[in-house]
Amino acid sequence: MRRLALDARRRFAARDAPPGPYARLLGASLxxxxxxxxxxxxxxLDIETTGLDPGTAEILSIGSVLVRNNRIDLSTARSCLxxxxxxxxxxxxxxxxTDTLCGTGDELGDVIAGVVEDLAGRVLVVHHAALDKTxxxxxxRAAYGGALYVPVVDTLALELRRRRRREQTxxxxxxxxxxxxxxxxxxxxxGHDCLADALATAELxxxxxxxxxxxxxxxxGELVTHW
Length: 227
What we know:
Layout lengths: L1 H13 L6 H7 L14 E8 L9 E10 L2 E11 L10 H4 L3 H4 L5 H12 L3 E4 L2 H16 L7 E3 H11 L11 H7 L10 H19 L7 H4 L4
Parallel strand pairs: 1-4, 4-5
Antiparallel strand pairs: 1-2, 2-3
Helix pairs in contact: 1-2, 2-5, 5-6, 8-9
């Protein structure tokens, strides 16, 4: 039912979509929930922001990389700085993105256009969709008048789902990207860099699929957390 609702929202938004990447995104066929993991392409993405409140935070940088055929395609990795409307403030101490550095960035609308182009026919992968997807939707609405209507695999939500099924409990710290990677036997990466975190999230997804069985047997419907 959730897949049907996403299809309906995409058709409705397509009626008023301006020509360009957003119209192409809405016009591209979505993969079936029954499709095998290896038959679907994913865009693993991470955002650095001015804060953690989705209502007020601004995007400062976006990193992304494609996952296809059960592999990370490093040739597609890219990172873009975004010029914010307000000052970076104290958040610069977390990710190192200062006002001076971000002042050299691109307009958010131009960066979002690239993200929208990359997501046509693909599935978005993020860690903590409550922040990243909310900010992407807001930017997409500002640029095109409609949200980013794509299936989402949230590795954080996926792990929460897995532990609930097994009646396992854990504190919030266990679901941080670095801690969750460690739980799946993945190496430590320094955080707060959008491209490094996008790669880290892509690796985590592959590890989660491998632990659940095999990529050939895992379906998209088992992984999608938000339609």
